[in-house]
Amino acid sequence: MGRTLQNTMINLGLQNACDEAVYQLGLDMEELEEIEEDAGLGNGGLGRLAACFLDSMATLGLAAYGYGIRYEYGIFNQKIRDGWQVEEADDWLRHGNPWEKARPEYMLPVHFYGRVEHSASGAKWIDTQVVLALPYDTPVPGYMNNTVNTMRLWSARAPNDFNLRDFNVGDYIQAVLDRNLAENISRVLYPNDNFFEGKELRLKQEYFVVAATLQDIIRRFKASKFGSTDSVRTVFDSFPDQVAIQLNDTHPAMAIPELMRIFVDIEKLPWDKAWDITKRTFAYTNHTVLPEALERWPVDLVEKLLPRHLQIIYEINQRHLDHIASLFPNDVDRLRRMSLIEEGDTKRINMAHLCIVGSHAVNGVAKIHSEIVKTQVFEDFAELEPEKFQNKTNGITPRRWLLLCNPGLAELIAEKIGEDYVRDLSQLTKLHEFVDDDLFIREVAKVKQENKVKFALYLEKEYKVKINPSSMFDVHVKRIHEYKRQLMNCLHIITMYNRIRRDPAKLFVPRTVIIGGKAAPGYHMAKMIIKLINAVAQVVNNDPIVGSKLKVIFLENYRVSLAEKVIPATDLSEQISTAGTEASGTGNMKFMLNGALTIGTMDGANVEMAEEAGEENLFIFGMRVEDVTELDKKGYNAQLYYDRLPELKQAVDQIKSGFFSPKDPNLFSDVVNMLFHHDRFKVFADYEAYVKCQEKVSELYLNSKAWTKMVIRNIAAAGKFSSDRTIKEYARDIWHVEPSDLKIPPPNEPRDAGQDKTPNGTAA
């Protein structure tokens, strides 16, 4: 979520008033804003997407709730010591959190372990351990519409009789200390992005948020007129018409068996009825195609922790496979491929399969990704129910990612096309009229230059590094991962360095290359990549021959509040994942909206950015998905490229020989060995095209006017990538609700009796 103060002032239309009031007190609002801690309750794109979605849902007047876990420790703080990443705990609640309100009156029990007893009246889950879920509510204001939604985060609390109820009179002190065991559930965020770690505590977290949330939803449904009870029990027929639940990846997949457990075991609905309601309630968003990221929980772990849920999953699977077998008799391989249970050394539950079978809609997050989901990853399922699979291209909120972080550009745009674009970003196309307006071109360039100077001053103050604000700011910020190919950027840096040294007199377009992002603490290769970038920076930045022509900076502790500073100052955005690996990307959209040009592969949303702006207005290079598939068929041989490309050979040899690590010449042998022998992401295959494309970038940068015109064409084409558009599509195609652009009257004005009626609609 990042910081809340400035976003709240903007959405409430109070920023100028607050700035002025604080100034009158002899204080500086920006200084105050810098004191607030980021809420870093997620890892990367997926968590930030949810935050943008909350902003858009409130702005569109949807009755929506965001549910999650109130981690005591969020994503670690990253320190760079001697070029290595070191993790520190993110104690973000140390000084309290003024935006949250604990709601102990809505505390709910969550059960773990125990056993299942079957009787004539049905299944009973008994002898469980109970943990209490305490909700904390954070307001989510819409933009200038007097709407405030709620983000509800659950915190784990031990019940007061914890460890004291079972004839455990003996050690009272130990029993109280053991309360920590229960409360550890919401202690810390698992810091992996795009990687599955099958730990018991992680599964506990996933079930904890799901069980608490579903009880909360059902409580709210029963309290409404739709869930009105007859003398016997609640009628749940209208449940899917009143409630839509969107699963943000497979992490909350246990919601499917949990809702079935509530309907069948507790509410005593017949299975078929319960299953129909469940399927119509859930929809699933897939966020990645990397096999190592797909959740596959061991059956024996689920059996120990959630025995009833395992039985329900088996039943769902049995009925699912019976259905497949009736359509495809004797196709045992299809049954194996489509089963929710994977056989092997350890039996595992494929959570993505569970989500597909248990949802009425499945979507990818960019056109190319949704195609890959349909035709490769889940092709058997898409063949069975093609109408279930959709695309919903991701977006970003223009409130935080333009108004808040780049007020200079936002104001400049408003002067030309009015202020309405903030709620309807498609209006940015009106900027095409000004692409040849010399004054506008100069003003756009001026805003960018001011942002660069401001960021340069920030770097100087915080990191004691001096950079040249007239150099091209070439920025690569995102989680560190092999598929995102920070290594390819690193090879380009080494290549530029070698070219300057070879011919110091030759014209060279000065660059400041900024790379930032966190590596998962257990991801050895990602940590080596950080060390390599810092080792290269050490050499490049201290070579007198290079001088100010080339500077390399590793940006420490990349997070939302730092993104808000670096993105508006960027000239060139690096989006260089291997085609077919980045589901969408959202940083790419933020850079586009803030006047950077993109160098990128035809991957994720880059494809649609090129479609909107025209491919000639992005720097597109490298293999397409088809080329990658083709190369896989014939076999990728890294050595071939190394032998054929002298500049690549030189760069790799320097890494290998210890040119960048003279004290430990073999320091990067693991990296080099990976690049030659098991590089799944084919860095060498795209190196030549990447370097050539970068030459075109430098050439255009020399012509400031032509560069800025291309920038304007990009901003004018960025309208599609508002999360408002994304959410309207979810609302229309999946949740079946109508966004309302009615501005609720402020609380100090009396409401019309007629306006008080809310139209019937689903709560998402």
Automatic annotation (TrEMBL):
It comes from the Eukaryota. One of its GO terms (molecular function) is glycogen phosphorylase activity. Its EC number is 2.4.1.1. This is Alpha-1,4 glucan phosphorylase. Belongs to the glycogen phosphorylase family. Residues 738-764 are annotated as: Disordered. It catalyses: [(1->4)-alpha-D-glucosyl](n) + phosphate = [(1->4)-alpha-D-glucosyl](n-1) + alpha-D-glucose 1-phosphate. Its cofactor is pyridoxal 5'-phosphate. Allosteric enzyme that catalyzes the rate-limiting step in glycogen catabolism, the phosphorolytic cleavage of glycogen to produce glucose-1-phosphate, and plays a central role in maintaining cellular and organismal glucose homeostasis. Keywords: Allosteric enzyme, Carbohydrate metabolism, Glycogen metabolism, Glycosyltransferase, Phosphoprotein, Pyridoxal phosphate, Transferase. Coiled coil: none annotated. It comes from Sylvia atricapilla (blackcap). The modification N6-(pyridoxal phosphate)lysine is found at residue 590. GO terms for biological process: glycogen catabolic process. PANTHER family: GLYCOGEN PHOSPHORYLASE, GLYCOGEN PHOSPHORYLASE, LIVER FORM. GO terms for cellular component: cytoplasm. Homodimer; enzymatically active. Interacts with PPP1R3B; recruits the phosphatase PP1 which dephosphorylates and inactivates PYGL/glycogen phosphorylase.
